[in-house]
Structures are given as C-alpha cells and as structure tokens.
Amino acid sequence: MNKVQFPVAAGIAATLAIGILSYLDSLTHTGLWLMAPFGATAVLVFGLPDSPLAKAKNVIAGHFLTALIGVFFVEFIGVYPWSLAFATGLAITTMLLTRTTHPPAGANPMLIMLTGQSWPFLITPVLIGASAIVCLGLVLNKVREAYLKAA
C-alpha cells in the first residue's frame, strides 16, 4: 500500500469497527457497546498496527485490567477526587507491570467511576468491544499483507 492507501484503509477499518459497535448499541438500546476510549484504540489498532501498544494482548488486557480497577473503586471505595487520581495511577502501574500497556485504557477508571458502571461493564463494552476491534484489526493486517505480497 502506498502512503495514501494505508491511511484510507485504516480509516475505513476504524469506521467499520466503531460502526459495528454503534449498530449493536442501537439494536440493544443498552448504551453498553461503545465507550470513548475505543476511538483512541482504533487509532492504534488500525493506524499503527505494528506498534506494541496495538497488540491484541495490550488492547484486550489493558482495557480489561484498567476497567476492573475502575469498577472495583466504584463498588468498594467510592468516587472522590483522590480515588479518581489513585485509580488512574494504579491502572497505569498495572498495565506497565503486566506489560499490557495500551494508552487509551488509561482513561477507563475515570470513565467508569464518573459514570458509575458496575461488573457487567467488564464484559460489554470492555471485553466484547476491545475484542471486536482487535479482530477487525487482524483482518485489516491480513488484507494489507496480502496486498503487499501481490504488489
């Protein structure tokens, strides 16, 4: 792919990923298929697929671990200025220690705490949404590799 084709393909893939999640959200009327950090995840997965930050492990585990921290704080500690800060710092530390760093996931504790999410949020949107984005990213990368081999 040339310098124009790859960004266009990445944009199309991001559109499909967010579009699918948005469509599922509208079908279920739950508001639980999308979360703002997925927009930044799409930048990494589709726009910078070779980045370590875009690896499947980083995307899925990074989102899950940081979301788990956010829900834990909502359920057991409460939402205060100090707890928002502490949960975010703990999330970053956890990603770094587990080698699952995914910068968009750093926003999860704040998002979850400020909106009062609970345990089901870990499944949808976090695990299902992150997994869907990763799967579409894998497809885009396979298509890109095939195109490069054929060129």
UniProtKB/TrEMBL annotation:
Membrane-spanning intervals of the chain: 7-24, 30-48, 60-80, 119-140
HPP transmembrane region domain sequence ranges: 8-144
Keyword Membrane in annotation: yes
InterPro entries hit by this protein: HPP, TM_HPP
Taxonomic placement: Bacteria, Pseudomonadati, Pseudomonadota, Gammaproteobacteria, Vibrionales
Name listed for the protein in its UniProt record: HPP family protein
Taxonomic superkingdom: Bacteria
Keywords linked to the UniProt accession: Membrane, Transmembrane, Transmembrane helix
Pfam families in the cross-refs: TM_HPP
Protein species of origin: Photobacterium proteolyticum
